[in-house]
Amino acid sequence: MPRNAFTLIELTIVLLLLGVLAGVAAPKYADAVAHFRVEAAARRIAADLKHARAQAMAAAAERKVVFDAAADEYLLDGVVDLDHSSQIYRVSLADAEYLTDILEADFAGGSEVVFSHRGAALAAGAVKLHSGGHTRSVEVSLPHSITIVNVND
Q1: Number of helices (H) and strands (E), helices first, in the chain?
Q2: Selection from 106, 115, 111 nearest residue 137 by Cα
Q3: How far apart are CA 129 and CA 116, in angstroms?
Q4: Residue 133: other Cβ atoms inside 10 A
Q5: What is the CB neighbour count within 10 angstroms for residue 98?
Q6: How many CA atoms, within 13 angstroms, populate the side-chain half-sphere of residue 36?
Q7: Model pLDDT for residues 1-47, shown as the tens digit of each residue
Q8: CA dist., res. 10 & res. 99, Å (int)
Q9: What is the dihedral sign for C-alpha 152, 146, 73, 66?
Q10: Which of 2, 10, 25, 53 is the most buried (most CB within 10 A)?
Q11: 59-112: pLDDT as tens digits
Q12: C-alpha 87: how far from its chain's center?
């Protein structure tokens, strides 16, 4: 006579194996999420720095990006938010989509980078980001280069 059900021992073994697999996979998943978060934050900062540079050239006026490492956010001074035209362009890296810390922002001793009316950065520097065990740096070189550097992985 054929069986139509699993025994309690078979179900326990399957659940035990699933628990072991989940225990092995969970840290790898968390590490991958942290990697993608810090990478997304670095790409966002690089894109926003390029946007500020383009805005400076379009307006023929200086534009600056001000970083606040304590609040893990930055703003593009003189640039309106693309979604809310009555607000200044501000990005919080503490939001759920990034959950990334700004370790430091250093541009010739200050925490802001200024682009001239011609789009040239007035000081070189970098913003260092961290999430999980991953660190990225977005570097601004004189006069026009903006690059993302893997600090560690």
Answers
A1: 1, 8
A2: 106
A3: 25
A4: 12
A5: 20
A6: 8
A7: 667 777 888 889 999 999 888 888 888 888 899 999 999 999 999 99
A8: 41
A9: positive
A10: 53
A11: 999 999 999 999 999 999 988 888 888 899 999 999 988 999 999 999 999 999
A12: 22
